[in-house]
Task: structure prediction
Amino acid sequence: MADMMKAVGIKGSKGSADALFIDELAVPKPGDGQALIKIKAFGLNRMDLLQREGKYPVPPQAPSTMGVEFSGVIKKLGVATGDSFEIGDSVFGLAYGGAYAEYIVVSTCMLIHKPQGLTWEEAAGIPETRFDHDYTSKTWITASQALYMVGEYAPGMSILWHAGASSVSIAGIQLAKIDNASAVYVTAGSQEKIDFCIGELGATAGYNYKEQDWASEIMKATNGRGVDIIVDFVGATHFQGNLDVAAQDARIVQLGQMSGSILSGNVDISGLLRKRLRFEGSTLRSRDEGYQKKLRDLLVDHALPKFNDQTFKIFIEKVFPFEEIAEAHRLLESNQTKGKIICTIN
Result:
């Protein structure tokens, strides 16, 4: 194995997509409880855009190289590794950073054995997905976190997923449907995305937040009852609507603030008391390995069997070769995608 590897760097440490280039770095060495992975594919997330621009607080244990989700093959193992991983295993997983590279070192606590039926590109699109301008982490792991750990979902509950065509909501809709939600509502910014959520994913109904009063429409659809769990990435502009559509004893899970964090002066928070609402924010990348392992195990329990039998679908917008990372970032910045953007390394 070579001592050096190719990795994506940023000229001047921060900048636009044009600042991305292929750098050469030393291959990292696995420590206790870690594995060295030869990366086959990695996924792009919106946190990467912020990190590239110097606007993201990278965890202290993260390398400077971007990228938090990947698939690949174990090449080396440190001591005291668990979970029955062996050299040569095909895996996918989540990292604090460093996935935009030929090799990555990661804790085995956040590795999952890749099902044979999944491609490298599909596996790389499972762990994480960012759809916000804050610090939260997303996709199947975060959808599971929002639904089960924070939202305390139980079969028969109703759910509203904002940003319905984002990768996290795509995962969350499928999780809720397979786990017998009474209704799954979505909001999105175009009719095309709403049609996708209903036609491809089976959402109950969808609302264009740019053209409709989505909160009033959901209250009509639920005969004034509202919904039990709301998962929101948007923030300020949806805050009042979330309070309005929340059912009695509902849970609002805040995962991002794409529209900003400052509320207008006429926001009515009385629903928090009157409806006994629980409002909770959540992050993932800054969590310790113990918490992330719990989420890894949650994903394995709830979702992995459904990937094996292809009940759950991984929607990939486009696959780029590693060398076209700048173009991949530009596509992510366009906000025109449904599903994941993936880069592959030969």
